[in-house]
Specification:
It is a single chain. The chain is an alpha+beta fold. The protein has two domains: about 1-90, Homing Intron 3 (I-Ppo) Encoded Endonuclease, Chain A (Alpha-Beta Complex); about 105-160, no CATH class. It contains eight helices and seven strands. The protein has helices spanning about 5-15, 50-55, 85-95, 105-115, 120-125, 130-140, 145, 155-165, and strands at about 20, 25-30, 35, 35-40, 45-50, 65-70, 80-85. A hairpin with a 2-residue loop joins strand 3 and strand 4 (about 35-40). Helix 4 (about 105-115) packs across helix 6 (about 130-140) and helix 5 (about 120-125) packs across helix 6 (about 130-140). The chain binds zinc ion. Zinc ion (ZN) binds near residues 71, 78 and 81.
Amino acid sequence: MEHNLPFREKFKRTLETRVQKVRGGCWLWTGSCATGYGVFMYKKRNVGAHRASWIYHVGDIPDGKFICHKCDVRNCINPKHLFLGDYKSNMTDRSAKGRHPNAQLTRAQAVEAFTSVESNAALARKFGVAGSVVSRVRMRQAYTWATEGLPAPPSRSRRLKYFNSWV
Ligand SMILES: [Zn+2]
């Protein structure tokens, strides 16, 4: 049975089916995510996919250590983009993320930004990013790896119509 597989075997299979390698070298987790981080289910427990990837490729995570992202892409599990940090570097890493306009959305959020009829400002508030990040996604100037192949986003007039219909 799938759920009885040893950790390495299960993670190896997941790597083959739940990871999309994209430009920039990120290995995006396409399985379930929580707060932007990939989730790997093992023995009925949720493990951060980036943590599982570290354990699989590098080794155990010492107590009290965090696995941080050099690339700021939370659902990336490329071990080369990960580093072992302490609580402080994890916090620094998180606050640094807030300053990187290009790497603040998860794939799912970028897709949502692209396809949603909500305004740039509403989505920006929802995702905690600048409005310019959302508008760049919609103009296909950013996150094109996430929106490739999707039909054009709803026009501004369609978005306005959507809002007016609620008034
Ligand atoms: Zn990465």
